[in-house]
Amino acid sequence: MALRKSLVSMAADSFLNAKEEIFRSVDDAVEMRRVGAESAILETRFSTAEDLSDIVNRVPLVFPRHVTNVIAEFDPFDSGLADVADSVDSAIREQHRSPEVSLQLWQSGRTVYKFNRREAWDEAAQVLADRGFQVSRAGAEYAVSVCYTPKTAVVGFNRIADSLSSWPGGEVRLSRPAEQVSRAEFKLEELFKEHGLPFGHSGTALDYGAAPGGWTRILAERGFRTTAVDPGDLDPAVLKRPDVVHERTTAGNFIRESDRRFDLIVNDMKMSPTRSSQLMIDSLPLLKRHGMCIVTLKTGSHHVLSQLDESFAILRRGYTIEFARQLRHNRNEVTVVLRALD
């Protein structure tokens, strides 16, 4: 029986961790071979990209950022999508009756052949249009993906809702606003904009280790009345907001001394994953019923999975893990979303 193939995208330095956690949880995984700096092809006996997406969200697995079913490959040195158009056409029509498709292209790793994203998109879109498809850059239910790697171009097709990310290869790109206080804001902004978790747009929030105030600013902009906890200074523009209160103390002292309750607690402090996890357990008395938390676990680059296993075990004493992912804007860390248990 022919093996199924899925294209999996992850951070360039997370391939081995992604492979290990996938083989822990995908029972029919056979092989996973790297094809680009941020991409690999997973071969399974029967699991599809949709199945993999479900496992990633349910377990959770933290390193895959994007998945799609592989339907063709071509040599980017001397051919293009037109050379595999027949197989691409039949694979799309087998899974999807509508002529509307989005087309996503990206490059994974440095290539010695000439690659221009705009020209490649226009060329591929024309091939699909010649086959009767209505092609857009975004907005369709299904996406045709073309990932250009150093030695091959991989063509995928999948429902966007089952692909982990609506961005090509999970490469979320955010513009820097003039009011940005720190680059750490990108992590929280990506989580809010890309993953559609039910945080709401009002209520009270608590930000541990807030200085200089990047996450506090994002929370306040979203509509949360935010308490920023940090012995250090906040950016003056953040501090003068009427929906921000600065408590100049440590997280530990605040937990011991406060009797307030919050809808959302966030923690982007630089500490070991187990200490961060225990801090979130200690914060349970400060959460309202069914309150949520966001924490970044700073794993570094060694013994990453064992650190995450230990941290998740601690967190599950008081929370359900709603989401865990190494986001595009995470560096040697994982963003985790928690909901307090009853």
Q: Could you provide a short overview of the structure?
A:
The chain has 342 residues and is α/β, with parallel strands linked by helices.
Indicate the CATH topology of the largest domain: VC0802-like
Name the structural class.
alpha/beta
What is the level-2 CATH architecture name of the largest domain? 2-Layer Sandwich
Helix content: 25-40%
> Which CATH class of the largest domain is shown?
Alpha Beta
Number of DSSP strand runs: 15
| β-strand amount | 25-35%
Straight-line distance between termini? 47 Å
Radius of gyration: 22 Å
Q: SSE order in H/E notation?
A: EHEEHEHEHEEEHEHEHEHEHEHEE
Low-pLDDT regions = none
**Mean residue pLDDT:** 96
Structure description:
The chain has 342 residues and is α/β, with parallel strands linked by helices. The chain has two domains: 4-170, VC0802-like (2-Layer Sandwich); 185-340, Vaccinia Virus protein VP39 (Rossmann fold, 3-Layer(aba) Sandwich). It is 29% helix and 30% strand. It has ten helices and 15 strands. It has helices at residues 15-25, 49-58, 85-95, 117-130, 185-195, 214-222, 236-239, 251-257, 273-282, 304-315; strands at residues 4-9, 29-36, 39-44, 66-74, 100-107, 134-136, 142-148, 153-159, 203-208, 224-229, 244-247, 262-267, 287-297, 319-325, 334-340. Strands 2-3-1-4-8-7-5-6 form an eight-stranded mixed beta sheet. The protein has a seven-stranded mixed beta sheet with strand order 11-10-9-12-13-15-14, sandwiched between helices. Strand 2 (29-36) and strand 3 (39-44) form a beta hairpin. Helix 9 packs parallel to helix 10 (304-315). It is elongated, with a radius of gyration of 22 Å. It starts with a strand and ends with a strand.
